[in-house]
Amino acid sequence: MRIITLFRGDGIGPELTESVLRIFDALKLPLEFEQYDAGLTSFEKTGDLLPAAALESIRRNKVFLKAPITTPVASGFRSINVALRKEFDLYANIRPAKSLPQLETRYKDIDIVIFRENTEDLYIGEEEMISADEAVAIKRITRPASRRIIKLAFEYVRRLGRKRLTCVHKANILKYSDGLFLEEFRRISEDYPDVEANDLIVDNAAMQLVMNPESFDVMVMPNLYGDILSDITAGLIGGLGLLPSVNRNEEYAMFEAVHGSAPDIAGQNKANPTAFILSACMMLEHLGYPDEGVRLRRAIARTYENIEDCTADVGGKAGTREFTESVIRNLN
C-alpha cells in the first residue's frame, strides 16, 4: 500500500479534497492518504500554520497532494506554499496548460508547459521597509538554481519529443540577474542540438501568448514570470480552474491546483475541482499508474462533453459534488 500525504487546505480546499477522495475510492488503487490541515485552518485550530507531524509525513512519504491554502495579501503570515517549496527544495514548478476540446474557449489546441524556477527570484522573501516611504525587495538568481531548472526543461522536451523550448527573461533591463539566467540557458542549449531553443523578453512573451499562443510549446523562466505567465496560459484554456501543477525535485513531489483557496465561495458547492483532479492525474503518472491517469483524464473529457454537468465558471449548471459524480460515472 503506497501512502500519500494530503493537505485538506483552506477555503474550497476541503470540498476539492472530498472530490478527489471519492474519485480515488472509485479507482480502487492500493493508495492510502494521510490527511493534515495546514495554513489558516490549522492556525485557527492549533495556533500552528505548518504542523511538525505534517512535515514529517511528507519526509516519510515523498509524495503529497495539497489543496489550496490561504495566503493573506499585504499582511499576515507568509505563504505556506513558499515555505513548503523552500523546506523540501522543490525547485521545479511544472504547469501544463492543455485545451479541453469539449470546452468552448477563444483558443483551440493549446498545449503549453511552463517550467518555473521555484526557489529564487523575488520569492525568497527578503524585503523590508527602509523608511516610512520606501520598501526594498531582493531578487536573487543563482547559476546552480538556473542550471537545474533549465536542464530539467531541456530533458523534458527531448524525452517527450516536444517541439521547442523558449526561455523567458527581462535581461535587457535586469542585466545581471536575468542576464545570468539567459546566459545559462544559451550555454546549456549547446548540449541539446536536437532541441529547438529560443528566448523572449517577458513583456513580448505575454503579448505573444495572447496573440499567437500556438507558437509556444515548452517554456522555462525565473519564478515571478512563471507565476504570472502561467495564469495567462490558464486563461487561454478556460481559467484557473483547469490548470494543474507539480512542484518537485528528484526526491519529493507536491501536486496542487494553481488557483487559490477562494474563501468567498467556500462551502457553497460552487468550486470547480478539475485542476485538482488533473493534478491527481499527474500524481498517478508519477506513482507509476499511467493507465489510471489516462482513464481519469478521459472521464474528465467525457464530463465536459455535456456542459450542464460542469461548474458555473465554465458555463455549466452543476456543483462540485455533481461534477464529481459525473466524472465517477464516466470512469466506466
Structural key phrases:
332 residues; alpha/beta; Isopropylmalate Dehydrogenase; 2 domains; two-stranded antiparallel sheet; 11 helices
Report on this model:
- With 332 residues, the protein is an alpha/beta fold.
- The chain has 2 domains: 1-96 and 238-332, Isopropylmalate Dehydrogenase, CATH 3.40.718.10; 106-237, Isopropylmalate Dehydrogenase (3-Layer(aba) Sandwich).
- It has helices at 13-27, 40-46, 52-61, 80-87, 143-160, 177-189, 202-211, 223-237, 274-286, 290-304, 320-329; strands spanning 2-7, 31-36, 63-66, 92-98, 111-117, 127-131, 134-137, 164-169, 196-201, 218-221, 244-248, 253-257.
- Helix 1 links the parallel strand 1 (2-7) and strand 2.
- Helix 10 (290-304) crosses helix 11.
- The mean pLDDT is 95.
What's the arrangement of secondary structure elements?
Elements: E1 2-7, H1 13-27, E2 31-36, H2 40-46, H3 52-61, E3 63-66, H4 80-87, E4 92-98, E5 111-117, E6 127-131, E7 134-137, H5 143-160, E8 164-169, H6 177-189, E9 196-201, H7 202-211, E10 218-221, H8 223-237, E11 244-248, E12 253-257, H9 274-286, H10 290-304, H11 320-329
Parallel strand pairs: 1-2, 1-3, 3-12, 5-10, 8-9, 8-10
Antiparallel strand pairs: 4-5, 4-11, 6-7, 11-12
Based on the structure given, which CATH architecture of the largest domain is correct? 3-Layer(aba) Sandwich
* Category from helices, strands and their pairing: alpha/beta
Quaternary state reads single chain
Kindly report the CATH topology of the largest domain: Isopropylmalate Dehydrogenase
The first-to-last residue Cα distance is 24 Å
Query: Low-confidence stretches at least 5 residues in length (pLDDT < 50)?
Result: none
Radius of gyration: 20 Å
The CATH superfamily of the largest domain is Isopropylmalate Dehydrogenase
State the strand order across the main sheet: 2-1-3-12-11-4-5-10-8-9
